Amino acid sequence: MERTNCDCKICQVPCYTAPGYLVPTDLVTMMGETGYLGEPEATVDWCMTWARKFLLASKGPCVNAKWFLRHCHSDAIPYGVERFYLRIPILVPAIATVTDDEVGRMDVCVFADSPNQKDLICSIHQYSPYGCRMFDTHMTAGDSDKRAHRGIYAVREAWRKAFSDEDEQDEGDELTTEEGMYVSMWLGLSREGLIREESTSESRRMVQKSIDVYT
Ligand code: SF4
Q1: What is the side-by-side order of every strand in the sheet holding 195-196?
Q2: Residue 8 domain-assigned (yes or no)
Q3: β-strands 55-58, 195-196: how paired?
Q4: How far is the CA of 137 from the centre of ligand 1 (A)?
Q5: By Cβ atoms counted within 10 A, which residue in 7, 104, 166, 170 is the most buried?
Q6: DSSP summary character for residue 38
């Protein structure tokens, strides 16, 4: 699946309302892009310093268990499973409040440069989070659904591995460093109250409301 590159005003709406979520493999590239990787002191504490500056913990989307299992190509979808939902906690970029000459104070993604309504630039465009680089507002619902599943599945795998006993894991199924960082950062930020208050569905509603202004 290829990334998207549209920077029209409608596709920039989430930068002001609900920045896209990260998957575990985003962490190292984003940290590198923001000058935080490769320092000798790159310890867990140091990674948390980076996370506090740039990220928030979100309780994440509530996904239907049947939808999720179907996308996992599971052979066995238990009867009645469609009544159940899974919450997948995600990391998202933090929001900064800035002042713009024309529109006054406004909230915008912490990674936005020149954050006025005319020329917002993503300072980490090449390494922007999965939830930003893989979606735009022009794609079909089917394409968006496939991409959403792939991203959410990657995050869910991090949580599954982090909370599985070793004897429940197959060979090669160990938690990767990035998956461990993802879960640790989410738990650390959440403990410190650095959270995105809106649920994912509330965020989607906010984005849609703002898009409606343009269309
Ligand atoms: S990371 Fe970049 S594309 Fe994503 S919300 Fe922030 S500024 Fe926008």
Answers
A1: 90-93, 55-58, 195-196
A2: no
A3: parallel
A4: 14
A5: 7
A6: S
For residue 197 the two structure tokens come to 């208050």
Those residues whose C-beta lies under 8 Å from the C-beta of residue 197, and which sit 6 or more positions away, are none
Count how many domains the chain has. 1
Per DSSP, 107 falls in state: E
d(CA 119, CA 169): 48
Cα 15 to averaged position of ligand 1 atoms, centre (Å): 5
Backbone φ, ψ for residue 107 (5° rounding): -95, 140
pTM value is: 0.87
Residues with CB under 6 A from ligand 1: 14-15, 19-20, 93, 109, 111-112, 122, 124, 128-129, 132
Q: How many residues are listed for the chain in this entry?
A: 215
DSSP H helical segments within the chain, as ranges?
Answer: 13-17, 26-33, 44-54, 65-71, 130-133, 141-162, 177-191, 200-214
Q: In degrees to the nearest 10, what's the CA dihedral of 188, 191, 194, 195? A: 100
Give residue 88's domain range. 13-166+182-214
Predicted confidence (pLDDT) per residue in 58-107, tens digit: 999 888 877 777 666 556 666 776 778 888 999 999 999 887 777 778 88
